[in-house]
Amino acid sequence: MGIQWRDSLAIGVKSIDDQHKELLARFDKLLNACESGKGIEELKRLLLFLEDYVQTHFNDEEALQKLHRYPGYAEHREQHVYFVSKIKDLRAETDKDGFSLHNVIETNNLLLKWLLNHISKVDTKLGAFINSGTP
Ligand SMILES: [Fe+2]
Question: Which end of the chain has fewer CB atoms surrounding its CB within 10 Å, N or C?
């Protein structure tokens, strides 16, 4: 188990790639915690971290899109809004009911799958646009 950064995920914008690396490292930490029976506490920690970090990360990405007058801005932002609301919902659930290990694994899969899909399909498009030198 575990999740590793791979070069195919790079979008070619260093500041954004670095943030993506940090995000994946946090998910890796959760996966490792699951293996040592500490998944539930680590999930709570991850959700708290994500609430802040993801917001900053998405703001940075969106600022970059505005700066480059990226035509896919609205669509891209919509995806970010969805993910932020998902994290908030999950945190509200864990605060209220707590989580079983089964939920931890499902939640992790859901968040991680979304993130990897978003980076490899949506963010790479943005990176290609920026690096194409289109004003
Ligand atoms: Fe994005």
Answer: C
